[in-house]
Amino acid sequence: MRLSKITEGLIGQPMFKLLVKMQEKERTGKKLYHFEIGDSDYPAPSHVVKSVKKALDEDRTHYVDSTGICEFKEAIREHIARRLGFRPALKQILVMPSNAIIDFVVRCTADPADEIIYPDPGFSTYIAVTSYTGVKKVGVPILESHKFHIQPEEIEKRITPRTKLIILNSPSNPTGAALNRDTIMEVGLIAKKHNLYLLSDEIYSKVIYDGIKHYSSSELDHCQERTIILDGFAKGYSMPGFRLGYAIGPESVIEKMGLLFQTIFSCFPPFIQYGGISALTECPADVEERVETYGRLRDLIYEKLNAMPGISCLKPEGAVYIFPNISGTGMSSQEFVEFALDKANVVLLSGTCFGTEGEGYVRLCYTRKPEMIIEAMDRLKKALEERKNGEDFNKRHNLAGRRTSCRG
Q: What is the CA radius of gyration of the chain?
């Protein structure tokens, strides 16, 4: 018996598919170095874990408001007021897994055959959601020559009568680029000019380096007209397994998303929401210290990668990924991924997992222990050097053979 048409377009997330395969290899005793998944080797803050345990002890395990418990939404309001300068209404806030927000926003703002504009390369879920919903994805090339910063004019030239949504991600997955205020505001004004919704994916907004500031297009409308913020706790707070996030947007959009969430999930576990309250209200220094640590890891892997033959990369301005250019090796992205796994036991993601413009690149998540980064990158460098030396030898050998043949 056949399944539904809509399931034919389901492609999932490449990093999780690869993770499962690699874990199967590890069960056979093979040692692998994981850089494919956007997880962290560092634990969630202890006060967050204690808050969740306390909530469980207090039996915070029953049904609650589908949009989020009031105490958590109040904490989000105050957090947004401190960071972005406006205090959203409670009806503008929806508590749900961050990744699911992308799916819900697309389904609540666009119909099949409508179009959404997204950065290419961009987060794989942007591609996965359009693949099964029938919404057409329109990629805007994000070029290394522009430091992976999106060009607003490239967005505007792709707008058609079918366009319903623009997706903006800063700092970026996979490139690590953090957009300046002028670019963010210009994209927001383009969305206003053409009466489009704008999904501002700010999941990495707390993970930003070198004194660079985070800016949000919500400055233009305080999420009351078209801007929908996506944020969460997986990255800045090292809480990926909690699956805790939130959306802030126009009340009409949040209401529809809330009904969709209620239909599918009923509500978000309340004991986890108490962990979110703790993250937002206790020990903000935890995040600052964690970002400092991530900055040192970024510097380490940046230096290691740029010392390898055939590889060059820009230093990320934010997020937890580095996106090296591997075209100098003569391998495609997928070939390089297979080479790294086969020759160095290093697990990477092909840049093509993030769009067609990702060809020639690979993505690594560097929130790993420094000794692991050093060991893995040294293995990869050695493998590339051996490959290059072999190629150089073959070239010299073939050239000598041709010269001998000519003399004969």
A: 23
